[in-house]
Amino acid sequence: MHRPHHLLRKITLPSWLPLDGFILGLVGTVALAALFPVSGRAATVTDGATTVAVAFLFFLYGARLSTREALDGVRHWRLHLTVLACTFVIFPALGLAARGLVPYVLTQPLYTGLLFLCLVPSTVQSSIAFTSLARGNVAAAICAGSFSSLIGIVVTPVLAALLLGSSGGGFSADSVIEIALQLLAPFLAGQLLRRWIGGFISRHRAVLRLVDRGSVLLVVYAAFSAGMTQGIWHQITPARLGILLVVEAVLLALMLTLTTYGSRKLGFPREDRITITFAGSKKSLAAGLPMASVLFGAQASLAVLPLMLFHQMQLMVCAVLARRFADRAPEPAPEAPAVDTAQPQAVAR
């Protein structure tokens, strides 16, 4: 499959640690919410702004999804089905298995956040970046991430309704309708208007990227402010956080092992195995945070904490794996020198 070389040139990763400005911004936003949480009328205004920002964010998602890129990747249906199975079948199954850790290892709120982490879609940008660095199938990574994000808008709230139940805090059947209106409807509107605004979006990618990240940071600020004003953080001890990190490390290790060796058993070529490894083992913070704000309401602060920790963990681990894949990649065979047929050939004596 043809690879978008312009995309390969734009993707860069830090040389020693994938700790970028966005991660620092998330940490700073959490600190800001801890020091200056909003309450009362200010909280109402912040919640309204968050609702508008999330709707606009998914409108941009819909407007930016290239139909041509999606159609180009349809023929890799085995790869896409494998990634979707990892994201929406194996991950939730492992999340349900972790139910046995309550209450001795994880508290019920932390487990709810861990299970929600297992339900959100796969990443797009970082999966493409790591696949590119590891010399995998970048075009398939683009399509796999796009398909996961698109399907996740519907599948994640449905899975949450089935698996979270009453443990989802403010989650109820009405949340499915709410998420359809706040997330799916703007996404479809973006798809319908893409014909007229697609060019504008392509010319202003840097500005729209700031809108993306600003929306996510606003969601984080609103969620963690609510947690501070309601005293939720008194329920978490440093020991519990350390245990949560260990549980998530085991979860990530299991998924990386299953995607790496499972794709080999299924007979995928090396480049496709790399795509499955990164797209099938990762979870999207950008998609998960807005969904959590709709599904959990005031309980979103604890619900998104496991996802935020897992996001940073997967970046660091996958960065190391991507470089190892790249180091082990076979060198391309040198091209045979072209023979100039226009020149007379020397006759051997």
List keywords for this structure.
349 residues; mainly alpha; disordered N terminus; disordered C terminus
In summary, what is this structure?
The chain is mainly α and 349 residues long.
Instruction: Give the termini separation.
Output: 47 Å
Bin the helical content.
over 70%
Strand percentage lies at under 5%
What structural category do the secondary elements indicate? mainly alpha
What does the average pLDDT come to? 78
Radius of gyration from CA coordinates: 22 Å
| Elements, N to C (H/E) | HHHHHHHHHHHHHH
Largest sheet geometry: none
Low-pLDDT residue spans: 1-17, 338-349
| Topology, number of strands | 0
Instruction: Name the overall outline.
Output: globular
Descriptive account of the structure:
With 349 residues, the protein is mostly helical. The protein is built from 14 helices and no strands. Helix 7 (125-133) runs antiparallel to helix 8 (138-163). The N and C termini lie far apart (47 Å).
